[in-house]
């Protein structure tokens, strides 16, 4: 699904106003649903970090989850990343295997994470019941849990609650309305549940705008190691993301030559027809197919060159200090 353009206009459009009654009902339902889930949450016996957002689509949660998991694994933790497994068929708690599972079974993002952390002290778990998944991960020896896309999943108590915000958009909350009139999953005032926000790719000059809660600034960037083989070659870039234009712009910003940029809907399941089309475009451009790790999880191995992403920024240490203080306070 592509986000409607009217969602991200600072002033609600006529379409948004027409949908406002439905949005009001959605907001009330989301609020009630959250309160019911939070009434009797599961309290894990290990620290829990939640990484989520308020808007539908990609704010940049995955790079943050990867960064935190890698850091705490390097500190001696057995880290378990817990995901709903969006787009996958798995309903019961399941540890994701990069060798034996497919994106259709466990979801594209969990499979991409499992491939990323091969050989490290990080496991990936999926399941519809996040509390049951947390129990299974603990039983398997996890000493720290990370809830991927966990802000609305209030059935698991968390030690540290982080909101991720896309700082590249003019209005990160869109028009400020809930679905379907706007991009918000729940009312904006609920952001106060988070301990702090991580704002990704906000321009580094000037003071960080106030987002309604304490915030830190980080930047995402494509790793030089994955970019090096691509310089000077025509690229046919494609991605099925909430904001595929961010991926395309980042390639161009690194001086790479884009012969074509092809966008698919978020969590797109690639068909044989799609693959044939992409091969044709690459042949016409005499170029290399390039995509993201998330998309690669749904493609035949070796179909396209995969570009890796990482986080940078001087406030990384401040963020980890903030989290550590919360983890040691319990």
UniProtKB/TrEMBL annotation:
It catalyses: a lipid A disaccharide + ATP = a lipid IVA + ADP + H(+). Pathway: Glycolipid biosynthesis; lipid IV(A) biosynthesis; lipid IV(A) from (3R)-3-hydroxytetradecanoyl-[acyl-carrier-protein] and UDP-N-acetyl-alpha-D-glucosamine: step 6/6. Pfam families: LpxK. One of its GO terms (biological process) is lipopolysaccharide core region biosynthetic process. ATP binds at residues 55-62. Its EC number is 2.7.1.130. Keywords: ATP-binding, Kinase, Lipid A biosynthesis, Lipid biosynthesis, Lipid metabolism, Nucleotide-binding, Transferase. GO terms for molecular function: ATP binding; lipid-A 4'-kinase activity. The keyword Manganese does not apply. One of its GO terms (cellular component) is plasma membrane. InterPro entries: LpxK (IPR003758), P-loop_NTPase (IPR027417). The keyword Lipid metabolism applies. Transfers the gamma-phosphate of ATP to the 4'-position of a tetraacyldisaccharide 1-phosphate intermediate (termed DS-1-P) to form tetraacyldisaccharide 1,4'-bis-phosphate (lipid IVA). Belongs to the LpxK family. This is Tetraacyldisaccharide 4'-kinase. It comes from Blastochloris viridis (Rhodopseudomonas viridis). The gene is lpxK.
């Amino acid at each position: 699904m592509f986000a409607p353009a009217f969602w991200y206009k600072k002033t609600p459009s006529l379409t948004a106003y027409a949908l406002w009654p439905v949005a009001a009902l959605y907001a009330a339902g989301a609020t009630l649903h959250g309160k019911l889930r939070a009434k009797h949450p599961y309290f894990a016996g290990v620290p829990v970090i939640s990484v989520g957002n308020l808007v539908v689509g990609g704010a940049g949660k995955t790079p943050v989850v990867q960064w935190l998991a890698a850091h705490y694994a390097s500190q001696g933790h057995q880290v378990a990343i817990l995901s709903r497994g969006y787009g996958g068929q798995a309903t019961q708690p399941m540890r994701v295997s990069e060798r034996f599972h497919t994106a259709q079974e466990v979801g594209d993002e969990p499979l991409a994470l499992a491939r990323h952390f091969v050989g490290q002290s990080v496991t990936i778990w999926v399941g519809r019941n996040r509390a049951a998944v947390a129990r299974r991960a603990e039983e398997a020896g996890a000493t720290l849990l990370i809830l991927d896309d966990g802000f609305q999943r209030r059935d698991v108590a968390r030690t540290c609650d982080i909101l991720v915000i896309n700082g590249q958009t003019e209005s990160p909350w869109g028009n400020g309305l809930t679905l379907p009139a706007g991009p918000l999953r729940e009312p904006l005032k609920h952001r106060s549940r988070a301990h702090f926000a991580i704002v990704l790719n906000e321009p580094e000059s000037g003071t960080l705008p106030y987002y309604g809660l304490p915030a830190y600034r980080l930047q995402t960037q494509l790793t030089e190691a994955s970019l090096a083989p691509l310089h000077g070659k025509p690229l046919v870039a494609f991605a099925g993301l909430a904001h595929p234009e961010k991926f395309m712009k980042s390639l161009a910003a690194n001086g790479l030559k884009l012969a074509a940029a092809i966008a698919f809907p978020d969590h797109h399941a690639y068909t044989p027809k799609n693959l044939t089309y992409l091969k044709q475009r690459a042949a016409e451009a005499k170029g290399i197919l390039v995509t993201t790790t998330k998309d690669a999880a749904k493609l035949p191995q070796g179909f396209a060159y995969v570009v890796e992403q990482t986080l940078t920024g001087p406030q990384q240490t401040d963020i980890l200090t903030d989290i550590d203080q919360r983890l040691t306070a319990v």
